[in-house]
Amino acid sequence: MSEQAFLISSASRLGVSLDAAAAKRLLQLLDELERWNRSFNLTAITQRAQMLTHHLLDSLSIASLLQGERIIDIGTGAGFPGLPLAIIQPERQFTLLDSNGKKIRFVNHAARTLGLANVVAVHARAEQWQDERGAFNTVVTRAFAPLSELMTTVRGLCGADTRVLAMKGRRSTQERAGLSPQWVIEQDVELAIPGLDEERHALVLRLDSRP
What region, left, alpha or beta, does residue 64 occupy, with left being phi > 0 and alpha being psi -120 to 50 degrees? Predict the structure, then answer.
Protein backbone atom coordinates (compact mmCIF):
# COMPACT_ATOMS: atom_id res chain seq x y z
CA MET A 1 0.00 0.00 0.00
CA SER A 2 1.33 3.43 -0.90
CA GLU A 3 1.83 6.12 1.74
CA GLN A 4 -1.05 8.11 0.31
CA ALA A 5 -3.42 5.14 0.30
CA PHE A 6 -2.40 4.24 3.88
CA LEU A 7 -2.96 7.81 5.02
CA ILE A 8 -6.39 8.10 3.38
CA SER A 9 -7.50 4.71 4.72
CA SER A 10 -6.20 5.35 8.24
CA ALA A 11 -7.72 8.83 8.38
CA SER A 12 -11.06 7.33 7.40
CA ARG A 13 -10.84 5.03 10.44
CA LEU A 14 -10.47 8.20 12.53
CA GLY A 15 -13.59 9.67 10.93
CA VAL A 16 -11.60 12.05 8.73
CA SER A 17 -12.33 12.06 5.00
CA LEU A 18 -9.20 12.92 3.02
CA ASP A 19 -9.15 13.52 -0.72
CA ALA A 20 -6.00 12.95 -2.75
CA ALA A 21 -5.06 16.64 -2.71
CA ALA A 22 -5.22 16.90 1.10
CA ALA A 23 -3.29 13.65 1.52
CA LYS A 24 -0.62 14.94 -0.85
CA ARG A 25 -0.23 18.16 1.17
CA LEU A 26 0.04 16.21 4.43
CA LEU A 27 2.80 14.07 2.95
CA GLN A 28 4.51 17.19 1.61
CA LEU A 29 4.52 18.49 5.17
CA LEU A 30 6.45 15.40 6.22
CA ASP A 31 8.87 15.91 3.29
CA GLU A 32 9.63 19.43 4.57
CA LEU A 33 9.95 18.19 8.16
CA GLU A 34 12.42 15.50 7.11
CA ARG A 35 14.47 18.01 5.15
CA TRP A 36 14.64 20.55 7.99
CA ASN A 37 15.18 17.87 10.61
CA ARG A 38 18.52 16.93 9.06
CA SER A 39 19.84 20.38 9.95
CA PHE A 40 17.77 21.59 12.88
CA ASN A 41 16.75 18.47 14.85
CA LEU A 42 13.09 19.50 15.16
CA THR A 43 11.75 16.11 16.20
CA ALA A 44 13.19 12.91 17.67
CA ILE A 45 10.94 10.89 15.36
CA THR A 46 12.91 10.36 12.17
CA GLN A 47 11.47 7.14 10.71
CA ARG A 48 8.97 7.94 7.96
CA ALA A 49 6.45 5.31 9.07
CA GLN A 50 6.49 6.71 12.61
CA MET A 51 6.06 10.24 11.29
CA LEU A 52 2.87 9.09 9.56
CA THR A 53 1.42 7.63 12.76
CA HIS A 54 2.90 9.80 15.54
CA HIS A 55 2.65 13.14 13.72
CA LEU A 56 -0.03 13.04 11.03
CA LEU A 57 -2.58 10.49 12.27
CA ASP A 58 -2.14 11.44 15.92
CA SER A 59 -2.89 15.05 14.94
CA LEU A 60 -5.92 14.16 12.84
CA SER A 61 -7.42 12.07 15.65
CA ILE A 62 -8.89 15.16 17.38
CA ALA A 63 -10.34 16.79 14.24
CA SER A 64 -13.94 16.10 15.26
CA LEU A 65 -13.42 17.65 18.72
CA LEU A 66 -12.57 21.15 17.48
CA GLN A 67 -15.21 23.85 17.84
CA GLY A 68 -15.50 27.39 16.53
CA GLU A 69 -13.48 29.35 14.02
CA ARG A 70 -10.43 30.34 16.06
CA ILE A 71 -8.11 27.56 17.23
CA ILE A 72 -4.79 27.87 19.06
CA ASP A 73 -2.22 25.07 19.34
CA ILE A 74 -0.09 25.66 22.44
CA GLY A 75 3.43 24.20 22.46
CA THR A 76 3.02 23.27 18.80
CA GLY A 77 6.68 22.30 18.38
CA ALA A 78 7.23 21.64 14.68
CA GLY A 79 3.53 22.28 14.02
CA PHE A 80 1.67 19.27 15.38
CA PRO A 81 -1.25 18.92 15.66
CA GLY A 82 -1.87 22.42 14.26
CA LEU A 83 -0.49 22.12 10.71
CA PRO A 84 -2.26 18.85 9.76
CA LEU A 85 -5.53 20.18 11.21
CA ALA A 86 -5.14 23.43 9.27
CA ILE A 87 -4.62 21.47 6.06
CA ILE A 88 -7.85 19.50 6.41
CA GLN A 89 -9.93 22.35 7.90
CA PRO A 90 -9.19 25.46 5.79
CA GLU A 91 -12.37 27.14 7.05
CA ARG A 92 -10.84 27.54 10.51
CA GLN A 93 -8.11 29.95 11.62
CA PHE A 94 -5.17 28.38 13.43
CA THR A 95 -2.63 30.10 15.69
CA LEU A 96 0.41 27.91 16.37
CA LEU A 97 2.42 29.03 19.39
CA ASP A 98 5.76 27.84 20.75
CA SER A 99 8.67 29.31 22.70
CA ASN A 100 11.26 27.53 20.50
CA GLY A 101 12.35 29.90 17.75
CA LYS A 102 13.73 27.33 15.28
CA LYS A 103 10.53 25.29 15.47
CA ILE A 104 8.37 28.36 14.84
CA ARG A 105 10.59 29.23 11.86
CA PHE A 106 9.80 25.80 10.46
CA VAL A 107 6.08 26.32 11.08
CA ASN A 108 6.26 29.61 9.16
CA HIS A 109 8.16 27.92 6.34
CA ALA A 110 5.74 25.00 6.13
CA ALA A 111 2.70 27.30 6.12
CA ARG A 112 4.18 29.35 3.25
CA THR A 113 5.27 26.30 1.29
CA LEU A 114 1.88 24.61 1.62
CA GLY A 115 -0.07 27.84 1.02
CA LEU A 116 -1.81 27.73 4.40
CA ALA A 117 -3.33 31.20 4.63
CA ASN A 118 -5.24 30.07 7.74
CA VAL A 119 -2.09 29.63 9.86
CA VAL A 120 -0.35 32.24 12.04
CA ALA A 121 2.86 31.22 13.83
CA VAL A 122 3.69 32.93 17.14
CA HIS A 123 7.05 32.77 18.93
CA ALA A 124 6.12 33.32 22.58
CA ARG A 125 5.40 31.71 25.91
CA ALA A 126 1.70 30.95 26.28
CA GLU A 127 1.36 32.41 29.77
CA GLN A 128 2.82 35.73 28.57
CA TRP A 129 0.88 36.15 25.32
CA GLN A 130 -2.68 37.17 24.51
CA ASP A 131 -4.50 37.70 21.23
CA GLU A 132 -5.97 41.16 20.73
CA ARG A 133 -9.15 39.52 19.41
CA GLY A 134 -9.79 37.90 22.77
CA ALA A 135 -10.40 34.31 23.84
CA PHE A 136 -10.07 31.40 21.43
CA ASN A 137 -12.87 28.97 20.64
CA THR A 138 -10.62 25.92 21.08
CA VAL A 139 -7.22 25.54 22.76
CA VAL A 140 -5.28 22.43 21.74
CA THR A 141 -2.23 20.97 23.47
CA ARG A 142 -0.34 17.74 22.89
CA ALA A 143 1.83 16.28 25.68
CA PHE A 144 2.52 19.84 26.80
CA ALA A 145 2.58 19.77 30.61
CA PRO A 146 0.90 18.14 33.62
CA LEU A 147 -2.78 19.01 33.71
CA SER A 148 -2.72 21.53 36.57
CA GLU A 149 0.24 23.39 35.07
CA LEU A 150 -1.30 23.26 31.60
CA MET A 151 -4.59 24.82 32.67
CA THR A 152 -2.80 27.63 34.52
CA THR A 153 -0.73 28.30 31.40
CA VAL A 154 -3.68 28.54 29.00
CA ARG A 155 -6.09 30.37 31.34
CA GLY A 156 -5.44 33.77 29.78
CA LEU A 157 -6.42 32.47 26.32
CA CYS A 158 -9.76 31.07 27.47
CA GLY A 159 -13.23 32.51 27.86
CA ALA A 160 -16.43 31.07 29.29
CA ASP A 161 -17.15 29.11 26.10
CA THR A 162 -13.60 27.98 25.26
CA ARG A 163 -13.00 24.26 24.84
CA VAL A 164 -9.56 23.00 25.88
CA LEU A 165 -8.40 19.75 24.27
CA ALA A 166 -5.52 18.16 26.17
CA MET A 167 -4.01 15.31 24.16
CA LYS A 168 -2.50 12.78 26.55
CA GLY A 169 -0.92 9.34 26.60
CA ARG A 170 -1.45 7.03 29.54
CA ARG A 171 -4.20 8.02 31.98
CA SER A 172 -3.16 9.39 35.37
CA THR A 173 -5.56 9.63 38.30
CA GLN A 174 -2.94 11.58 40.25
CA GLU A 175 -2.66 14.17 37.48
CA ARG A 176 -6.41 14.77 37.47
CA ALA A 177 -6.48 15.08 41.25
CA GLY A 178 -4.31 18.17 41.00
CA LEU A 179 -6.69 19.99 38.66
CA SER A 180 -8.10 23.31 39.92
CA PRO A 181 -11.85 23.17 40.71
CA GLN A 182 -12.42 26.07 38.30
CA TRP A 183 -12.02 23.54 35.47
CA VAL A 184 -14.45 20.78 34.54
CA ILE A 185 -13.51 17.69 32.53
CA GLU A 186 -16.46 17.28 30.16
CA GLN A 187 -15.18 14.31 28.18
CA ASP A 188 -12.42 11.74 28.19
CA VAL A 189 -12.13 10.54 24.60
CA GLU A 190 -10.23 7.39 23.66
CA LEU A 191 -8.04 7.94 20.60
CA ALA A 192 -7.30 4.77 18.65
CA ILE A 193 -4.55 5.73 16.19
CA PRO A 194 -4.11 3.23 13.32
CA GLY A 195 -0.61 1.79 13.38
CA LEU A 196 0.22 3.27 16.79
CA ASP A 197 0.28 0.71 19.57
CA GLU A 198 0.30 3.23 22.41
CA GLU A 199 -2.40 4.56 24.70
CA ARG A 200 -3.84 7.89 23.61
CA HIS A 201 -6.77 9.92 24.89
CA ALA A 202 -7.98 13.51 24.85
CA LEU A 203 -9.47 15.36 27.78
CA VAL A 204 -12.08 18.00 26.92
CA LEU A 205 -12.17 20.75 29.56
CA ARG A 206 -14.09 23.99 30.16
CA LEU A 207 -14.21 26.63 32.85
CA ASP A 208 -16.84 25.78 35.48
CA SER A 209 -19.84 28.04 34.83
CA ARG A 210 -21.67 27.14 38.04
CA PRO A 211 -22.18 30.03 40.51
Answer: alpha
Domains of the chain: 3-207 (3.40.50.150)
Q: Is the dihedral of CA 132, 92, 116, 1 positive or negative?
A: positive
Predicted confidence pLDDT, tens digits, the chain (211 residues): 899 999 999 999 999 999 999 999 999 999 999 999 989 889 888 899 999 999 999 999 999 999 999 999 999 999 999 999 999 999 999 999 999 999 999 999 999 999 999 999 999 999 999 999 999 999 999 988 889 999 999 999 999 999 999 999 888 888 888 898 899 999 999 999 998 888 999 999 999 877 6
Residue 13 makes CB contacts below 8 A (sequence gap 6+) with 192, 194
Angle between helices 101-113 and 20-40 (to 10 degrees): 150
Sign of torsion over alpha carbons 57, 54, 99, 147: positive
Residue 128 gets which letter from DSSP? G
